[in-house]
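Q: Hi! First time doing this. I have a protein sequence and I read that you can turn it into a structure. Is that right? Here it is:
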Amino acid sequence: MSETIQDNKYVELTYQVIDKKSGAVLVAVEFPIGYVHGANDILAPTVTEGLEGKSAGDVIEVPFDGDQIYGPRDESLVFTDHIDNVPEEYREVGTTIITENEKGEPRSFIVTRIDDKTLTVDGNNPLCGRKVLFKLEILSIRDATDEEIEAGGPVGVNPDIDESLMMPI
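A: Yes, that's right. Below is the predicted 3D structure, encoded as structure tokens:
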């Protein structure tokens, strides 16, 4: 009998985030991501619930409203400036710019549009205002080690990943 996802099981999966309106794949994570089920809150509760009881090889789809997690879109977080005021290294769509507010708190902005004269950045989470579908493929399930349970995920694994591109699921 194959293992099923339940608390303290180490699970490896891949996922896609698909815009329900357009059908476009917004994010595709093709390398396995490992976590310990029930040991942390890395996954949204609706995703965790959808995975419960599933087996390796299963593919599930979980609908998700970005506004529920990230709040509604805030147009005051969208700024357009003359391109000459923006350093050269930020002049590419998709680039993340980290800034600080008056309190010293970090805020991420993503370059969303560039033309000959202007550059636009957006401080909203890319899932704000979107209804999406998380499509998850379960690759493997096994008993987690005590060390993995304590850490909530893989131990001693340091993949070379640009974390600014990661999106919580």
